[in-house]
Amino acid sequence: MSKITLRLRSDLQSPLDASSIRLDEWVQLSIEEIERFELRSQSGPVAIGDLFEVSVQSDVAMPRLVIDGCLRLVSGIGFQHKLGEIVCQSNVGDHAGSCMLGGRIVVHGNAGDHLGSPMGSRNVGMNGGQLIVNGSAGDDAGHRMRRGELWIDGDVGTRLATWQVAGTIGVAGNVGPNIAYGMRRGTLIFGRQPTLDANRFSTPIPLRSAFVSLLGRNCQASWLTPEFLKSLRVCRGDRQIDGRGEIWMP
Q1: Which is it for strands 233-237 and 205-206: parallel, antiparallel or unpaired?
Q2: Residue of 138, 116, 120 lying closest to 129 (CA atoms)
Q3: Would you say residue 193 lies in a domain?
Q4: Residue 3 lies in a domain
Q5: Is 27 within a domain?
Q6: 52-65 tens-digit pLDDT
Q7: Which of 19, 73, 159, 240 gives the lowest tally of CB atoms within 10 Å of its CB?
Q8: How far is CA 111 from the centre of its chain?
Q9: Is the CA virtual torsion 124, 122, 137, 192 positive or negative?
Q10: Cα distance between residue 116 and residue 134, in whole Å
């Protein structure tokens, strides 16, 4: 197994599309091959080695990609990611973790729009794995999510978890309007009281679930303290489409 580190040589001046990076394929490449790997940019293809310093460490426990430097203009990081861990040491752009299938992505900063959502012509968003954002996220996070876990320590924009099919999303901060429109199943966990459409979601009642204690033991979200978990209430919806999703809130 290999740990690959990309260190940005200087701040990017225009958007960069990183959706072609596949960690499960990159672990088979040499440093020279990674440096020659091309990404799409506004000015045309650009080689990784022209933008990043590349280093590789062998004999690690699992495949790992660490990206260091401001990635605010980089979209599609972790697209269809399925094996190992991707760690971004700063803010990232749109579509981080889109169509993710497995493994883990950690963002030490904020994420743009469409976090863990579909991209292009695909109609399924995050479909496995664990996506963790230590900061806030933009609009349309968790759209059409089917499996996996999405944890956000900060705030989230509008249209969180629209048409969610399954999976778990946790948000510690504030959430914008149009939450869980068209939600079918799955679980949303909020650290603060959200504003929900009363026509779409049932009246909250005290939460009684064996899953709560398991969540407290296994989840890495520091805001899910034992005291907080005991205070949770639950409502269900989206009733307009006979949805059976659950929203947990204090």
Answers
A1: antiparallel
A2: 116
A3: yes
A4: no
A5: no
A6: 999 999 888 889 99
A7: 240
A8: 8
A9: negative
A10: 15
State the residue for tokens 């596949």: 22
- For 162, 234, 239, the CA distances from 203, given in Å and listed in that order, are 20, 8, 11
Sheet strands side by side (includes 104-107): 52-58, 2-8, 64-68, 85-88, 104-107, 127-133, 147-152, 168-171, 187-190, 245-249, 233-237, 205-206
- Given this model, what pLDDT does residue 47 score? 97
Q: How many domains does the chain have?
A: 1
- The DSSP-derived string for 227-248 is HHHHT-EEEEE-GGGT--EEEE
> What is the value of pTM for the model shown?
0.94
120 to 98, 124, 220, 228: CA distances (angstroms): 10, 10, 31, 38
> What is the predicted pLDDT for the residue at 216?
65
Span 194-235, pLDDT tens digits: 999 999 999 999 998 777 777 766 677 888 888 888 899 999
Q: Which residues contact 73 (CB under 8 A, 6 or more apart)?
A: 12, 13, 14, 15, 16, 93
Q: Is 216 helix (H, G, I), strand (E, B) or coil?
A: helix
Domain that holds residue 114: 63-249
Determine the 3-state secondary structure of 38 from DSSP: strand
* In-domain check, residue 14: no
- How far is residue 226's CA from residue 200's CA, in Å, rounded to a whole number? 29
Q: Which residue in this structure is represented by tokens 């426990």?
A: 61
